[in-house]
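Researcher: I'd like a structural prediction for the single chain below. Treat it as a standalone chain; there are no partners to consider.
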Amino acid sequence: MTDLKNRRPLQSRKSGWANRITAFLAGRAITPNQISQASIAAALLAGLAFWMTAYADSTNLKGALLILAALACQLRLLCNLFDGMVAIEAGKSAPDGPFWNEFPDRIADIIIFIGIGFGLGSPTLGFAAATCAVLTAYTRELGASIGLAPDFSGPMAKQHRMATVTLAAVLAVFEQHFLPQGTILTVALWVVIIGSIVTVGRRANHIRAGLLGG
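Model: Treating it as a single chain, here is the predicted structure.
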């Protein structure tokens, strides 16, 4: 069974389009776990597209790769939305659902941020962003594991991280007209790193206050 207590609150679940797609998926031989697993494929596509920008021999090719990466990042989020909706709203949850709900997300974050880092020629920066993303999720899970309510607070929760890199990828298509190549994505990684550090600090403080009864 999927753990409802550990479910991220999302307004998009109430939208008509999301419920129509959920009904479509639920009527097929598609399991929530398969949708969760598909998020890894989407992240791999995004990570490879970001990485391959380093080898693009034309502005048009690089722009196409950046758009592909942006779309794949959003596809990853859609997988994260519909795995839970098919499991809960459509009643197709499985005993190992909680594992597939979390584990692919950590792999996806790592692949995407490392791909950006290699695409920029700054793998260390990509690894740093990936580490901060995983630490952010770990802090949430730490609180939940000791009996506290899961803390999905930001400013750099999963959806914020993906929004940051998606927007950066789209803007980077046009940066050759205004900025040195790689500036926007480099700034995006720093935003993710700094925002994640703030998020980890907030969540850690909430855990401590919760344990102290504050």
